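Milestone M4 deliverable, item 7.
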Amino acid sequence: MDYKEEFISLFKENVSRPGAQELIDWMLKTDFFTAPASTKYHCACPEGLVRHSLSVFNVMVEKHFEEGKDSLESFTICALLHDICKAEFYKVSTRNVKNDETGKWEQVPYYAIEDKFPYGHGEKSVFLIERFMRLKPAEAIAIRWHMGGFDDPNSYSVSQAYEKYPLAVKLHLADLESTYLREKNTSVVNKK
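Output delivered:
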């Protein structure tokens, strides 16, 4: 099973909310399943975004799921969709880089940001999801603040969100561990 199939299977198995299928149908029309997760940091490669989303789900369930207390549906929604804002966000471009061995300048591919809907990060993911499927308040808060202080370092709202919604803390921790401890700093663009 490839990453896309695994993602869709997990989502359909765990999410039964109205609008869920329409959301998946929309995602299939975007580059979500082929896009990178970043320009050069984590999973900066084809299919990096879907790989990162699955990694966050795995960490979240392995480390933070409490049977009888947590909702597997909410964990699935938050982990798999927290970075949906990165669909249609990156484009492959080229830049000149000096080859250390030859001393010549060469064009190399890299991922550039081309944000067609500059609405923020977490809030953009919430907006895109809610075009198709309603989120519970805890899910919306978790997705909005999954970047913690990296997203808006001058806000006191993240602290309040984490105090009120443990799901937000769990998503943030899973995203951090996936990004910085589990995912390799992969090459930026496949040169196929």
